[in-house]
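Ticket #4471: complex job returned nothing on first submit. Input attached below:
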Amino acid sequence: MSDFESRPHFPAPGNAPFRGLRQVAPPPPEHPESDLWDRRVANALAFLRRRLTGEYEVDEFGFDRELTDTVLHPLLRPLYRDWFRVSVRGVENIPDKGAALIVANHSGTVALDALMLALAVHDEHPEKRYLRLLGADLVFRIPFVSELARKHGSTLACNPDAERLLRAGELVGVFPEGFKGIGKLYRDRYKLQRFGRGGFVSAALHTRVPIIPVSIVGAEETYPMLGNFKPLARLLGTPYFPITPTFPWLGPLGLVPLPSKWCIEFGKPVPTEPVADMADDPLVIFNLADQVRETIQQTLHQLLDVRDAEAAS
Amino acid sequence: MSSRPVSGAHPPRVVLVTGVSRYLGAQVAARLAADSRIERVIGLDDREPTGEQATILADSVEFVRADIRTAQPAAVIADNRVQTVVHLAIASAADPNAGGRAAMKEQNVIGTMQLLAACQQAPELRKVVFRSSTAAYGVSFRDPAVFTEDTEPRDTPRGGFARDVLDIEGYLRGFRRRRSDVAVTVLRFAPLIGRRANTSLTRYFSRAVVPTVLGRDPRLQFVHVDDALEILHRAVTEDHPGTFNVAGAGVIMLSQAVRRAGRIGVPIPEPALSAIGRGGANFSLDQLDLFVHGRVVDTGRLIREFGVIPRPTPVAFEDFLRGISGVLPREAIGAVEQRILAGLRRSRAAVR
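Support reply: We reran it on our side without changes. The output follows.
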């Protein structure tokens, strides 16, 4: 062959070390056996140094695992543990590895339920798995919010992204009600809204992954939406403008969520393998979507009964 | 880049390369000329190559001075019985010293139309290789995170280069229909990077203080210049009709790139940057679109078809960094970290 075939191969991917990595490793502490304080300080400094020098990894969706573990999850944990006192059931229904589509009800005016769900999956599951949330395009239009969402592992709710994540073996979280669910009035609480076109079902069918129905109780009461001031929503280009007992009357104080008691139940996985070959049949899609929707709705009623009984006792 | 040899190569006898007075064109032409399977390489440009480009092209490449915005290339293609045209004379940024945006559009759009008209009349022509860009996917907040070659652009981009690319790819589709006997390879390149690359983005990362968009941290992808050259070479000597994304796997966030390069990022509100971009200063609307939305592509098709794996984006970027020196070098930050840690340990030891 020509010289073009015999040229030396390029270095293998990932082998090139970053400049200066070796020189900047902090020295070991003098008493490594039990000096927790020293280790914490050293870790915090090393974290700051890595952030300042860009020596961390993000995946192609922009998921920054280090930032999620070190900053985002610790910020959300007090809300999860102490404010909403989230109790979780059925975490064993989430697979230890491999892809699954987690489908949940959506409520509460602000998408706190999505964040709490992701933290529940990570903290309660033995494998500490990350839930890759699918968000509305509005999330990705807003500066800062869009970037935090991506760093937290979220991406746009569209079939190419959902299927790409599922093919990569990730847990993907979706709220098929969308704004119809999160922006509904308090009087409609725990009434599941329409599930759209069932795009989430076709994503699961195309990738042959199970669907895990999830019911979240508690988010409805965080920001009880008494009214929707539509003219202002239109002006701002948002799907709704909430009027709650505290917002906008109390200004920034109105942004504090009410401390409702939350329960999250992960249901039995619905296999998609048997009907995966009929992924383009709208009837199959609608039937499966209805089945998931019914499961979530029934579980919501059961969880509400349990919560009421606990509150009464 | 790792590679495997591909069988069934059909190198052309005569190749025409446009844009040889620029870096990429000169490199590609010289590489093809060095390939013994190719008899003649004709380099075309509307200005004489100078400096490094002239040295690279000397002796091996036959230079023809012609303006692709006119009908001149048609005669060159017909007279020399050109079999493969490699179209690289695409300007990715307006040059304020050479007519600005109007001249850039003329060069890109009219130039490509004229060249394709010439190609259409050339009976000997077998192949057209075209340098496109991942800017062809446009920008929208409803875009998927990763573009495949089949993703359709949702919104028209603001940037002039991206608009040109969309126009040009449209003309290429028309050409494909009219000359179905000619293999058309469209390579959609991510921004080129590497020690030797000189683009608006490499110049950006070479500044001490770099503007970023307030509240946005885009996902960027690059392709190493050497990998781009290898793939262009293969596109000429082997048969790979179709459209292919060319990028290094993985991503690097802009904030991360700025920090790895040891630069100081200054976030500026988007309206201010877009006013600057419209004013035609050295921060273009193309760059602004990229810095708001980011751009990541899937390269599965390239790897399957060409049998090559370009260097991952972080590795390509690291190679670029070897050629520049940081304002905030990592070593200095590491030294500060150690000094703080040592100081804290000393004061604790003193207290105990």
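The mean pLDDT of chain B is 91. Closing as resolved unless it happens again.
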